[in-house]
Amino acid sequence: MFGIFSKVKLLLVIGSIIAMVAAAGLWYYKDTQTRLARYATNQALVENALETQKTQTLNLLQDIRLMSETINELNADFVASRQKVQELENTFNKSSNGKDRDFTDLALRKPGLVEKIVNTATADTFRCIELLSGKEPTEKDEKNAKLKDCFNSSND
Description:
By secondary structure, the chain is mainly α.
């Protein structure tokens, strides 16, 4: 009674079990391959992002270095300009021979003299601006001691 039908049933059950195990194995393999491909894509994206981040970090460091150098130059220029302002402030309180004077008192006592001094200095300043802007110095400019600094500094 358990003869041939039992064997066929047993073979069908065993075959079904083997087919299910094979199907589960195939499903597991395909799912694993899909996950590995997704992980590889994600890894490539992460590596690309890291490389981009490294490049941007290096660019930022270069920019910071450049800004630092620029700030140092600006600070040095600022100190130099403050010294020039101080020299200019002191200029009014010293006579041409280097003696101390009260410029306000002089202006009140001798307005014509002060006007002449200011007009001459203004003309020299405008000529200095022309020289600094690229105008060629004339022989008269070269003889004027006050203007020598103007065209000498424009050649720096």
